[in-house]
Design a protein that fits this description.
- 34% of the residues lie in helices and 26% in strands.
- The strands form three sheets. It has a five-stranded mixed beta sheet, sandwiched between helices. Strands 7-6-8-5-9 form a five-stranded mixed beta sheet, with helices on both faces. Strands 11-12-13 form a three-stranded antiparallel beta sheet, with helices on both faces.
């Protein structure tokens, strides 16, 4: 059976899709990758929040699935809105990569005495297009000058190397996936410092580091083919984070983070939200992951 796999055209999206395609090929399925340009890719807006509602990086791909132009799609899970067309399902969540953000720094802007979380010189210029990252940076280091930066991963690192910024913030998973897939990124990172930002403090976007493999609900053959790619602990953690996001009723335009991980007695959920100019944090744990979103959200908004 030949499977048509839809994905965005960025280097990272193609790398992620190639990983899924390789696993399907190993299972005996032929795959054809189809590149789809989304509204988010076409937009020239300076920040993600200015592009439009959550889903601008996946809408055209989901429409192609519904129209049967492709058989499956591979998304960065954090790009998916909390609700998708009813005809579609997340058939697999492969094992999740590192959920954390990383700070990539020009060496002359590095200052370890400034603290372990954000070891930057005073008033450093930091590039990001994410509302969440912008707010977290200002929360932990009000002195930093946070400036807009969009583009694919190599483009953003290139802007850093051009000295337009002292540091930039990226997803650890995206950087690592591209490092493994291409020698170009490895050479671009030469001479730069990479600082992993503790996800329990600098709380990442819900589902960051995870992939979502989506197909039509009524396509039993594709659902069956994808089932072997699913990693149950990753799906549980990501579902908990996204359930909490659904309560925030936000997308790219709010500062919200959620990180769920395995704990001694089940799972622990850490959530972070800016509301009324104040950053709030909740930390809850329990053996019932499905109940953590309600519990964490209630604590976050001060209901308990």
């Amino acid at each position: 059976m030949k499977l048509r796999l839809g994905t965005r055209a960025s280097d990272l999206a193609r790398t992620q899709s190639a990983t899924v395609a390789r696993r399907l090929n190993e299972a005996g399925f032929e795959t054809e990758i189809k590149l789809i340009r989304t509204a988010g890719d076409r937009s020239k807006a300076a920040s993600f929040g200015s592009i439009g509602p959550q889903g601008v990086f996946v809408r055209e791909i989901e429409q192609a699935l519904v129209a049967d132009a492709i058989d499956l799609a591979v998304h960065s899970f954090k790009d998916l809105p909390t609700s998708s067309p009813p005809e579609l399902a997340i058939a697999a969540v492969p094992e999740r990569a590192d959920a954390a953000d990383v700070l990539i720094v020009n060496e002359q802007a590095l200052d370890r005495s400034a603290g372990a979380l954000l070891p930057l010189i005073e008033h450093a210029r930091v590039g990001t297009a994410s509302v969440r990252r912008r707010v977290w940076l200002g929360h932990f280091r009000p002195d930093l000058r946070v400036e807009s930066l969009r583009g694919n991963v190599p483009t953003r690192i290139g802007r850093l190397r051009e000295m337009r910024y002292d540091a930039i913030v990226l997803a650890a998973a995206g950087v690592e996936r591209l490092r493994r897939a291409t020698n170009v990124l490895e050479s671009m990172l030469e001479g730069l410092a990479i600082v992993r930002l503790d996800p329990e403090l600098f709380v990442p976007a819900p589902a960051q580091g995870a992939l979502a493999v989506q197909c039509r609900v009524d396509n039993a053959a594709v659902n069956a083919a994808l089932r072997a790619l699913d990693d149950a602990p990753s799906r549980t953690a990501v579902s908990t984070e996204r359930d909490t996001l659904a309560r925030a009723e936000g997308g790219c335009d709010i500062a919200f983070g959620a990180y769920c991980r395995r704990a001694a007695r089940g799972f622990e959920l850490i959530a972070m939200l800016e509301r009324d100019g104040r950053v709030r944090v909740s930390r809850v744990s329990g053996s019932d992951a499905a109940a953590l979103a309600d519990k964490g959200w209630a604590e976050l908004v001060g209901a308990v």
